[in-house]
């Protein structure tokens, strides 16, 4: 997840995109999960009502692909939803747009990142449970095994706090670093720390979407699954290390404003129910058969 301000919006959303700023809304945020309603045909179409419009911001891969499947296969329409998907290539603007009311929900982030954003910017967001996991990977054009990592090696790493901590934890699990017993670990804790960083690894902070592009300039880079895919990498083939999904807290989820209520909230619950359904799980497994994206239903 990145601090880049670049967005890639659908033509239908260009007018809304011009209103985006980096100002966060005030107030104390919460991350209370909403309860998914019981299954059943409660669609507006079945009840003879008009569909409810939902504008959802998403990263192009895999989030927008999943939402486009929901739309193109008629799952949204059957549930009485008129789904509009707005694509973003960064990890800042989707939350800005949600807070300012340009989106009804977003689907691009995991819970640790969402909680960090709420703590930092005061967003009043709630969320549903995770839909899928994109295993974090370590990539290299210079070594074939993490055990070959030399002293003083350069490590490309995300510059946002939650993903930086995630990347450092992966290096700890692989024995390249020693664990530091504190919350919110960052590269600052490892720089010059001979005990925790015996290889004297040099960290190169980079905005997450750019990590695939800096791969030739570093010894290894630790890259989010979606940005690896967007950068032309195949995690199951190209990663020298892939994060385990067992007990993984980084499942990507749908977030929405905490003050949402009534028809719109009901529509968001329907969308989340679809995303957790078997049809979407089967689509994820078929589209990414080698585990690049893994449904939380599997």
Overall form: globular
* Rounded Rg: 20 Å
Largest sheet: 5 strands, mixed
| Element-by-element helix/strand order | HHEHHEHEHEEEEHEHEHHEEHHE
Separate helix tally: 12
Q: Report helical residue fraction.
A: 25-40%
Q: Give the full name of the CATH homologous superfamily of the largest domain.
A: Periplasmic binding protein-like II
Strand content: 15-25%
Structural write-up:
With 298 residues, the protein is of the alpha/beta class. The chain has 2 domains: 11-134 and 249-295, Periplasmic binding protein-like II (D-Maltodextrin-Binding Protein, domain 2, 3-Layer(aba) Sandwich), CATH 3.40.190; 137-242, 3-Layer(aba) Sandwich (D-Maltodextrin-Binding Protein, domain 2), CATH 3.40.190.10. It has helices at residues 14-17, 44-47, 60-72, 75-78, 93-99, 111-121, 161-173, 211-214, 225-230, 235-238, 262-275, 278-287; strands spanning 52-58, 81-87, 105-110, 125-127, 132-133, 137-139, 154-158, 202-206, 220-223, 241-242, 252-257, 294-295. The protein has a 5-stranded mixed β-sheet, with helices on both faces. Strand 7, helix 7 (161-173) and strand 8 form a beta-alpha-beta unit. The model is unreliable at 1-46 (pLDDT under 50). Keywords: Lipoprotein, Membrane, Palmitate, Signal. It is found in: Membrane. Residues 1-24 form the signal peptide. It is a lipid-anchor.
What key attributes describe this structure?
12 helices; alpha/beta; five-stranded mixed sheet; 32% helix; D-Maltodextrin-Binding Protein, domain 2; 2 domains; globular; disordered N terminus
